[in-house]
Amino acid sequence: MAKYFAFQWHITDECDQRCKHCYIFNNPENDCLHSMNWEQMMKVLSNCEKFCQKFGRIPYFYLTGGDPILHPNFWRLLEEFKVRNIKFTIMGNPFHLTDEVCSRLKSLGCDKYQMSIDGMELTHDWFRKQGSFQITLDNIATLKKAGICAVIMSTVSDKNIDEMHDVIDTVVAYGADVFAFSRYCPTLDDKVDDAHDNYNDGVGLTAERYHKLLQETDKQYKEYEENGCHTKFNRKDHLWTLLAYEQGEFVIPENAKSSMIYGGCNCGNCHMTILSTGELYACRRCISSVGNVYTDKISDIWLTKMDDYRQYGKFEKCAKCKLLAWCRGCPSVAYGTYGRFYAPDPQCWMDVDLRV
């Protein structure tokens, strides 16, 4: 069975929102909004397909932006996907989703559409845009009517962690097909305070507090699952593995090889990000470019610069943890917090003897 290789592809920076936790608009180096032209898009497709052919993979695209639907060649690109039989998910905003648009998306092969809910109404609309909360919830039904899987994603931070249980109840009530959350990934230069009405990096999100969230959310998920809930809960954060381990639900296999990596963070393993400028990143949550998709072969980048993200023995805490091969938390959160990719995950509560 062939394996997919995932590309998170940002085709444009254009967006209807200016979210307070956005990587694009909070980056002081972004002095203009970029969008790929058609020739550049075809260069990206060609480079990605050649890379996948070389390594026996199938390309899968998470098409995003900005809001990808705002790109003038958005529909043309989806038609190209259909011709090439390329599978994809769209990660975008809810504002342009009508019955007609969703029907067209479905006809061109869109099986999943991911939207965001980042707290209850007052909090979410503060993060994103006035009215965004209700428009997002209402368009769950619009997507489902067209036969598209409606995915809701939340970004957890110190600002909204206490609202997550209500968010889950709400998206379940509105019939979301999939729900997941991940943690906000701070950048080293975004530590501003609320006096500037900007995003605070969530230093208050301690390991103990996040541990409690996962414990309580796990019970909430299981209650829904036992009652036949339609919504599927994606335990996206790799610290879920740590929770499962401490609860006895995950047991390290007796035949596990110490030299193997079996799961956990996929950075450096099976995905890359392509920005609207053509810059290649190991992960969108990392801030260092590893190359450019217009000028570099992805296969060359994969075998050289990407290897910097696969040095598992360099993890300052994880390398000494029995769950190294299955977890590793989120190195990008560690980088955003401490400036080191291999630094300890700040929300990991595992007690590890660092002297070993």
Automatic annotation (TrEMBL):
Keyword Iron belongs to the record: yes
Cofactor(s) the protein needs: [4Fe-4S] cluster
Boundaries of every Radical SAM core domain copy: 1-223
SUPFAM superfamilies with a match to the protein in the record: Radical SAM enzymes
Superkingdom of origin: Bacteria
PROSITE patterns tied to this protein: RADICAL_SAM (PS51918)
InterPro entries given in the database record: 4Fe4S-binding_SPASM_dom (IPR023885), Aldolase_TIM (IPR013785), Elp3/MiaA/NifB-like_rSAM (IPR006638), PqqE-like (IPR017200), Radical_SAM_PqqE_MftC-like (IPR050377), rSAM (IPR007197), rSAM_ACGX (IPR027583), rSAM_sf (IPR058240)
Keyword vocabulary terms for this entry: 4Fe-4S, Iron, Iron-sulfur, Metal-binding, S-adenosyl-L-methionine
Pfam families: Radical_SAM, SPASM
Name of the protein described by the UniProt record: Radical SAM core domain-containing protein
Organism the protein comes from: Anaeromicropila herbilytica
Lineage: Bacteria, Bacillati, Bacillota, Clostridia, Lachnospirales
